[in-house]
Structure formats: C-alpha cells, structure tokens
Design a protein that fits this description.
single chain; 376 residues; alpha+beta; six-stranded mixed β-sheet; six-stranded antiparallel β-sheet; 5 helices; 22 strands; 20% helix; globular
Length: 376
C-alpha cells in the first residue's frame, strides 16, 4: 500500500539542549481517535506500542509509530482515506495528516493505516489526550466524498484517484497489446525514471522572503504546454537570487468552458551547469471564468537546496500546469499522451498508483502486477 504522509514542519529552534529520556506513550490516556456517528469507516483496533514522548526544554516531542485497522461500514468501495493527527492545533509542528490513496476496499472489508509522524506539543498545553486523531475525508469509487475536508484532502485524493485510473488504463493497454514483456518493459522504465528524477529540497515562506534580501535579478519563465490543459500560462517571472526564488507571478488564461477555482503550477529549475531539477508545485486559489485572463501571484518565497548538499545557482525556470480544479469540483490532470513529451514526462511525478505497482513488481514480480490490473 502506498502511503503519503504530509508532515508539519517542526520548529525546534531555541529549545534547550537538555532533554528528558524518551518514554513509551500510554495509548489509553495519551491517544484519542474520533470518528463521527455516521462515519463510513469504523475502528477495529489501534496499536500504539512503538510511540514515544520526549521532553526538550519547554516542549514535548511526540514520536508516533502506530497501526490502525479500519473497516468499510458502507456498501460503496473506498479509494482513499485521510486522517488529521493533532497534538496542538495552533502550535507550529503540532498537527499533520496521513493520506492513503490507491485503496480498493469493499463493503465490510478491513484495511490498515500506518501513522509514522513526529509532532510538537507545548508542555503548558491543557489536559486531555496528547494526540487527537480525526477523520478528515473518505473518497469513494464514484468520486463521492465524505468528511470535514479541513485539509482540502478531497482535491488531493481526487487527483490521486484520477491519476490511478489513467495509469492503470495505460498499463492494461500495454499488457493487452504487447503481452507480459511489454508490461515488464514499462515497469522497468518507470522504476528507472523514478530513480533518476533529480529532486530538490524546498523551503517555503509565505508573505515574504525565505532569507534576508540579497541582490538578484528578475527572471522570465519558459513554459511547457500539456495538450488540452484548461488553463494556459502566457508569461511569468520572479525575483531570483542564487538558490532562492521570490515574488512569483503568472499571467494565465482559462481556455475551458468552465470556471476554475484552483490550479497548481509545477517547476523545473536549471542550474548554471545545465542540470535540471524537479522542484515541486506551487498551489494557487483563483477565480477564472471561461475565457478570462488573470494573474496568479502567490505570496510565497522558495529556497531550494540539493538533497546531497552543495550550492545551487538558478539559471532558468520552466513552469507547467500540473492540475486544475473547476468550480464544480471536477479535476483536470495531464493525460498519458501528454507525458510522451520528454521534458513533461521527466517533470511529472509518478502517481501513487504507479509507484505502488512498480513496488509490487519489485517485491512479487510481473504476475502480481498483471493480477492487480485485472481487478479494475
């Protein structure tokens, strides 16, 4: 099962150097799992045995390693689940989420969710459980949704499900047209692409620069244009200084017949040596009517670093529309045909489902992947 954990940033600067020894958490007094009365999933069991706490100065660090077992209490098939995990709602580093895409859980079936998180809680916080786990959302196979959606998980899980359907359809077509060896070639190609994608660590600061001002330059962006993308970027620029990019802005036009309320623009950075790096996406809430032009200017600064260390000097930036959400909740994602463009194929992250299938191939072989594809 492929799992995505969205970890809150731990701000531990200024914490005293001394720390009390870590100790196991008592699940009965420390953990509280809350599910609504009409929840589509019910809790079967929770194993908190590996979770620990540690006091550092005026803060408590909670190291959570636990497994939950949930059951589908509906007659609908479940495709994704997101849990909100909180130690303190207002403290930086005090809350996080766990999302599980690529599920296929039928009525009455049980499924596990693994929680591996580190959270921060002030020592002076009020009484009650140290950790609160809530259901933020459930996505069904008809793309129906249940939940509070505090984290906008409906959008994320819908994107992952549409990507999963796209990728399964593609791999099934390869299997039918070219047989097992064709599917094997695609699995190996995907694994190679995943291992070769150069990535950057990204630090984002909203509403200002990530570091103190340094002299830089205004840089114009180039763009890739996925076929049939409903929003087209026309121009863009940002202030660039070394490895930092600030005040990004884009002029875009809605080419579709539907209003658009959200889009994500992906980034490809090239350094002065000519090496390209995939640098994630920048989300933006918008209000674009059909045919309308608009400007997207997220109040964010981004500082990039190589995972292995070393200086990065940005020489050029290329953007592309990664996905779009319409005002009625429908979502657009790039097609597999669009991914035939070498640069776009290089830039687009493999979906959770593609990663799950390649992991299954590496662990259990081609027959297991083929059997999975036949289930849908």
């Amino acid at each position: 099962m492929f799992m995505r954990n969205k970890l809150a940033i731990l701000l531990l600067a200024g914490v005293a150097a001394w720390a009390q020894p870590s100790r196991p958490l008592d699940a009965r007094s420390s953990m509280h799992i809350t599910l609504p009365a009409d929840s589509p999933v019910t809790l079967l069991s929770a194993d908190w045995g590996e979770s620990k706490s540690e006091v550092r100065g005026g803060a408590m660090v909670l190291d959570l390693h636990t497994s939950l077992s949930l059951r589908n209490a509906t007659q609908r098939r479940i495709r994704g689940v997101t849990l909100l995990v909180m130690a303190q709602e207002v403290t930086p580093g005090g809350k996080a989420s766990v999302s599980v895409p690529s599920l296929d859980v039928g009525a009455g079936e049980a499924f596990p969710i693994r929680i591996d998180l580190r959270l921060l809680r002030p020592l002076q916080a009020g009484g009650g459980p140290l950790v609160q786990v809530e259901l933020d959302g459930v996505l069904f196979d008809d793309l129906g949704f249940y939940g509070a959606n505090k984290l906008n998980c409906r959008r994320s899980m819908t994107v992952w499900e549409l990507e999963a359907r796209r990728d399964r359809k593609y791999f099934k077509a390869v299997l039918q047209a070219e047989g097992p060896e064709g599917l094997r070639r695609e699995m190996l190609s995907s694994m190679a692409r995943q291992s070769e994608r150069p990535r950057l660590d990204v630090q984002m600061a909203r509403g200002g620069r990530a570091t103190n001002y340094e002299p830089g330059r205004e840089m114009q962006f180039a763009f890739l244009h996925p076929p049939e993308a409903p929003v087209e970027p026309l121009s863009g620029s940002a202030h660039v200084s070394g490895a930092e990019l600030s005040s990004p802005r884009f002029d875009v036009v809605n080419r579709s017949k539907s209003a658009v309320r959200y889009l994500e623009i992906g980034w490809i950075l090239k350094d002065r040596s000519g090496k390209e790096f995939v640098a994630g996406t920048l989300p933006s809430d918008v209000n674009l009517q059909p045919g309308q032009h608009g400007q997207v200017a997220p109040p964010a600064s981004l500082k990039f670093a190589r995972p292995a260390g070393g200086a990065l000097d940005i020489d050029s930036v290329t953007g592309f529309v990664n996905h779009v959400e319409f005002s009625d909740g429908r979502v657009w994602i790039p097609s597999r045909a669009a991914m035939q463009d070498p640069r776009l194929r290089h830039a687009l992250a493999p979906s959770p489902e593609e990663q799950r299938l390649t992991d299954l191939y590496s662990r259990k072989g081609l027959a297991a992947v083929a059997e999975q594809l036949k289930r849908y």
